[in-house]
Amino acid sequence: MIKLLIVFFVLTLLPSKSFSDAAENWQLGFQDPATPIMEGIVNLHHDLMFFICVVSIFVTWMLGRTLWHFNEHQNKVPSSLSHGTLIEIVWTVTPAFILLIIAVPSFSLLYAMDEIISPAITVKTLGHQWYWSYEYSDYLNEENEAVIYDSYMIPEEDLQDGQLRLLEVDNRMVVPINTHIRLIVSAADVLHSWAVPSLGIKCDAIPGRLNQTSLFIKREGVYYGQCSEICGINHGFMPIVVEAVSLSHYVGWISNKLSEQ
């Protein structure tokens, strides 16, 4: 009885926090961030919205005042003023100053997105028409074969309870949390794009070229994405699913994959 009361207290009285790692119906805002980069993107967006709101309100007020005062019913005699040096300096310097303020955090975030910190794991992602394949070349089995597997979308008729339509795959990309990961992205046929919103990643997959990006996931979870480059008739049917697990779970998963090769 005491255990039931404790469970009831935890589930009903304590504040709960859920993460939306996939898009929801009628969603307007960002998905919950799971990486420092995505947190920076969300924070920068919120900061910019402040400037946008202030500028929009000010410009709307100016237009309203102009329409009100420069009306033939309000002023029978039109003004002879054609221009003013001071006001022209003000409305030129002020936007430039605002852009300088915005540039500092935006450049910092941009450089952070391009920085590759000494990775502990490298995962190669290869786009095909129309599925993804993943290669963990850091691990080799007794035959010197790396962990390589394909990831296909699960058809709607094969979905199980709780799985998301057009987003679930048969083989997820599994990575550990709190680990610096290097992603190498390429394509085997046409242009693709490996994009996962909650992770703040959108990297083009170009045939004959290796693009590189970094990943550092802060919490366990399952994160959904899709190819964001129009790549053919089944462009909307090659989803991306990243499962972030603890390091011990990841080691066990890699061991099983190596034994299966």
Automatic annotation (TrEMBL):
Residues 118-256 form the Cytochrome oxidase subunit II copper A binding domain. Residues 1-20 form the signal peptide. Binds a copper A center. InterPro entries: CcO_II, CcO_II-like_C, CcO_II_C, Copper_CuA, Cupredoxin, Cyt_c_oxidase_su2, Cyt_c_oxidase_su2_TM_dom, Cyt_c_oxidase_su2_TM_sf. This is Cytochrome c oxidase subunit 2. It is found in: Mitochondrion inner membrane; Mitochondrion membrane. One of its GO terms (molecular function) is copper ion binding. It comes from Gelidium gabrielsonii. GO terms for biological process: ATP synthesis coupled electron transport. One of its GO terms (cellular component) is mitochondrial inner membrane. It catalyses: 4 Fe(II)-[cytochrome c] + O2 + 8 H(+)(in) = 4 Fe(III)-[cytochrome c] + 2 H2O + 4 H(+)(out). The lineage of its organism: Eukaryota, Rhodophyta, Florideophyceae, Rhodymeniophycidae, Gelidiales. Its cofactor is Cu cation. Pfam families: COX2, COX2_TM. Residues 22-117 form the Cytochrome oxidase subunit II transmembrane region profile domain. It is a multi-pass membrane protein. The chain crosses the membrane at residues 48-68, 89-113. Belongs to the cytochrome c oxidase subunit 2 family. Keywords: Copper, Electron transport, Membrane, Metal-binding, Mitochondrion, Mitochondrion inner membrane, Respiratory chain, Signal, Translocase, Transmembrane, Transmembrane helix, Transport. Component of the cytochrome c oxidase, the last enzyme in the mitochondrial electron transport chain which drives oxidative phosphorylation. The respiratory chain contains 3 multisubunit complexes succinate dehydrogenase (complex II, CII), ubiquinol-cytochrome c oxidoreductase (cytochrome b-c1 complex, complex III, CIII) and cytochrome c oxidase (complex IV, CIV), that cooperate to transfer electrons derived from NADH and succinate to molecular oxygen, creating an electrochemical gradient over the inner membrane that drives transmembrane transport and the ATP synthase. Its main location: mitochondrion. The keyword Transmembrane applies.
